[in-house]
Specification:
By secondary structure, this protein is an alpha+beta fold. The protein has 9 helices and 7 strands; from the N terminus they run ββββββαβαααααααα. The chain starts with 8 loop residues before the first strand and ends in a 7-residue tail after the last helix.
């Protein structure tokens, strides 16, 4: 079920709750990861998933923790990774049968147009709508909340190892349950996944700026490089050094 390791060549972009790779995919080893994954390509690519076996597809959604394998590509592909507990992730995951959804050509084209050149949360929400995500979460889109926005803005780049709900709720002068509800309504993410993605984003930004892996990890609030690598691999299926 494995193919020789290749080199990943392309561009990486990340935001809170999502990551994107655009370029030639390399390592094709079978794996599973926490994020919901979307593949978009102009031509059919060889993809294996445990529920379906090998397929040739130009678009596919693979659910969280579903074992899969993408053969190394000779042309550019788009790989979008979405936190499964986010609003977009729950919509994508809710539409899957046996953890996989193959997209037809119109859906692929609509998704590519919605995502655009520079993805963000709004573009990803539009993409989900174009490919028919589960509409049961449609009424739970993120809403603006000045109090939560101010709290998030006040957080240091290097997040403490133990940043508790109680501490943040007290800072916001809210009960813990009310704080968690308003936080999710504002960000589209539960608190713990939000903090995890924020650490990943800060660490990857440091790596891309040329900092050593250990320094970038510590600057983002990870205990060490190994902690960062485990978290990154859990979300994306590959170690950060691959990129």
């Amino acid at each position: 079920m494995t193919t020789p390791t290749g080199t990943w060549r392309g561009q990486v972009q990340m935001g809170i709750g999502w990551g994107q790779f655009v370029g030639r995919a390399g390592d094709g080893a079978a794996h599973a990861h926490h994020a919901v994954q979307l593949l978009l390509s102009e031509s059919a690519q060889a993809v294996w998933t445990r529920p379906t076996g090998w397929l040739r597809v130009s678009g596919i959604v693979i659910g969280a923790d579903v074992e899969h394998q993408l053969a190394p590509t000779t042309e550019s592909v788009t790989l979008l990774y979405v936190e499964p507990h986010s609003t977009a992730g729950r919509q994508l995951g809710g539409s899957l049968r046996d953890g996989v959804q193959v997209l037809d050509s119109p859906e692929v084209e609509a998704a590519r147009r919605a995502l655009g050149e520079t993805p963000d949360a709004a573009a990803i929400a539009a993409l989900v709508e174009r490919i028919g995500g589960d509409d049961r979460t449609a009424d739970h889109q993120p809403t603006g909340d000045a109090l939560i926005a101010e709290l998030i803005e006040s957080l240091p780049a290097q997040l403490p190892d133990r940043l508790t709900t109680a501490t943040l709720a007290q800072q916001a002068r809210l009960s813990e349950s009310r704080f968690l509800h308003r936080f999710r309504a504002h960000t589209g993410l539960p608190l713990r996944p939000y903090l995890r993605w924020r650490r990943l984003l800060v660490a990857m930004t440091g790596v891309m700026e040329g900092r050593a892996l250990t320094q970038a990890a510590v600057d983002a609030g990870f205990a060490d490089a190994a902690h960062f690598t485990r978290t990154f691999r859990r979300h994306f299926g590959i170690p950060p050094k691959t990129l």
